[in-house]
Amino acid sequence: MDEVDRAILAVLEKDGRISNADLAERVSRQLGREVNVHRIAPESWAASTTDPFITSVRERPLTQLNLDQEA
């Protein structure tokens, strides 16, 4: 089975009410795959940067997913 790297980019509320673990668990359940969370501020994503993680994600193909929010 081929492994595919996935990155989910989302705008989250600034107050940080949801922990990385809760977010990963929720999205993992929706996608049926393991998810690791790496939070980046919108300003950091939009800015010119040499950050290796952001650079790597930006260089790869992106596909928009429309996930319904859980109640």
From TrEMBL:
<feature type="domain" description="HTH asnC-type">
    <location>
        <begin position="1"/>
        <end position="27"/>
    </location>
</feature>
<dbReference type="InterPro" id="IPR000485">
    <property type="entry name" value="AsnC-type_HTH_dom"/>
</dbReference>
<dbReference type="InterPro" id="IPR036388">
    <property type="entry name" value="WH-like_DNA-bd_sf"/>
</dbReference>
<protein>
    <submittedName>
        <fullName>AsnC family transcriptional regulator</fullName>
    </submittedName>
</protein>
<dbReference type="Pfam" id="PF13404">
    <property type="entry name" value="HTH_AsnC-type"/>
</dbReference>
